[in-house]
Amino acid sequence: MAVGIRADIPSDITKMLVCIDRLQDGEIYGRCYNPYYSANPKFIGLAALIGRMEFLFDGLSYPQRTLEPRKFRVRTARRRIPDAEEGGMPMEEPKEKETPRGEKATFVVNVQFRQNATWQGTVSWSEQKATRRFRSMLELISLMNDALVEDESLAKWSQDEKYGEDESR
């Protein structure tokens, strides 16, 4: 059975602007924005950032999960963001305004797929105008961490990507 793409969801709704303001004791402090939903943008730590993004994706069922998480307790209903018809927050058109910037770094994270219990997509480092693909959350975290560590970060981000080279063999 083929699963169709929901027509009521814009394709760029999974893009999140992640502004990293500081790195303290191994934790990142920052803000994340999505132009279609307004929420408290501040987060402390990667777990809070990933949890916020995962909540948005689960509420939209987009990108859809290929695996459901295991739980010890059985829930009767999935948490989701209610539609405007259900009295929930309406999807707003993005407002044209100045783009927020992080004090240490700014990333645009675009999650395109959620397969094999992780994320796949692209991450763009705004200050260096560099974009890299990631195949897992761990790879995304590693790329963001490399950008925050100043000594070799530019060299790692500017290396040519090797995706697709081995596939032709």
Task: Explain what you see.
The chain has 169 residues and is an alpha+beta fold. It is 20% helix and 24% strand. It has 3 helices and 6 strands. It has helices at residues 46-60, 137-148, 153-158, and strands spanning 15-24, 27-33, 42-44, 105-113, 120-125, 130-134. Strands 3-2-1-4-5-6 form a 6-stranded antiparallel β-sheet, covered by helices on one side.
Question: Which terms would index this structure?
Answer:
disordered C terminus, 3 helices, single chain, globular, alpha+beta, 169 residues
Short recap of the structure:
This protein has helices spanning 46-60, 137-148, 153-158; strands spanning 15-24, 27-33, 42-44, 105-113, 120-125, 130-134. With 169 residues, it is an alpha+beta fold.
Describe the secondary-structure layout:
Blueprint: E1 15-24, E2 27-33, E3 42-44, H1 46-60, E4 105-113, E5 120-125, E6 130-134, H2 137-148, H3 153-158
Antiparallel strand pairs: 1-2, 1-4, 2-3, 4-5, 5-6
